[in-house]
Amino acid sequence: MSLVLKDVSKTFAGKLVVDNISLTIDKPSVFGLLGTNGAGKTTTIRMLLGIIKKDKGEITWKGKAVDRKNINFGYLPEERGVYPKTKIIEQLMYFAELKGMKKEDALNSINKWAKELKVEEYLQMPAEKLSKGNQQKIQFMTAIIHNPELVVLDEPFSGLDPVNTEILKNIIIDLVKNGKYVIMSAHQMHTIEEFCTNILILDKGKTVLKGNLKEIKEKYPANRVQINAENSIDSYIKEFGLEIENEKNNEYTIKISDEEKAHQLLNKLVSNGVKINRFEIMKPTLNDIFIEKVGE
Questions:
Q1: Do 172 and 236 sit in the same domain of this protein?
Q2: Pairing status of strand 3-12 against strand 150-154
Q3: What is the pLDDT of residues 91-111, one digit of tens each?
Q4: Nearest Cα residue to 183 out of 148, 149, 154
Q5: Into how many domains does the chain fold?
Q6: Residue 115 burial by Cβ neighbours in a 10 Å radius (0-12, 13-18, 19+)
Q7: What is the pLDDT of residue 189?
Q8: For the sheet containing 64-65, what is the strand order?
Q9: Which residues constitute the domain of residue 261?
Q10: pTM score of the predicted model
Q11: Do residues 83 and 202 share a domain?
Q12: What mean pLDDT is predicted for residues 60-84?
């Protein structure tokens, strides 16, 4: 079972917004679809879900051409869509029945997810009474209430506090464990790094980078070293001509151009009796790589 996009393109009003992109997701996992605003992410998502038609290329799910009849998907769009004056339970029942669920099954699923997402107390309230974060959790419920095989999440953590972000993260992890295919689009690069095995970065509709995230990062040289020392080491860092990117309570993030300089600094600190609690040479973050690829 897999989702395959092959040489897919889409033009709106004479403008090519998705240009010949290809990707494959061949096992349950979280796939990261990245790009700046207007890069073509949402158009790609809508084509692969059969919401809009592609102009050229192939999109298949389980070996069959994608249309809205043969793909059981859940979609959390970036644009929020809860009805402010309608009770939450009524909205959820409506969306469940749109997906073909029987009333009893829908109610069981609503109660299950409301408990997991800690929104049981809001089911009888109109949406306008809920905070932005709780509205976001309700909309997430509409995406997964019918037990879809493919789940597409566009900015899923928008508006969530750290506690609710953690709840949602654990649910996404469980979805993958239960055999779901998840595509995630987000602007928080640390979130993508945490979840995604494979990524694709779009810029102006074109693919600028794709593949296994770990393998991509391995191709880049180290560019930072993190040091936690008992005392200030500013003078040593300046002696080696290195730049401090961040420092707080003698915890340093230092930019480096090669690993040898970092080891020389460590040897100097140790030989001068400076106690080091942590020393870690680091590869570029996904944020660094993203800016390099689309920063212009």
A1: no
A2: unpaired
A3: 999 999 988 999 999 999 999
A4: 154
A5: 2
A6: exposed
A7: 86
A8: 15-25, 3-12, 56-61, 64-65
A9: 224-294
A10: 0.87
A11: yes
A12: 84
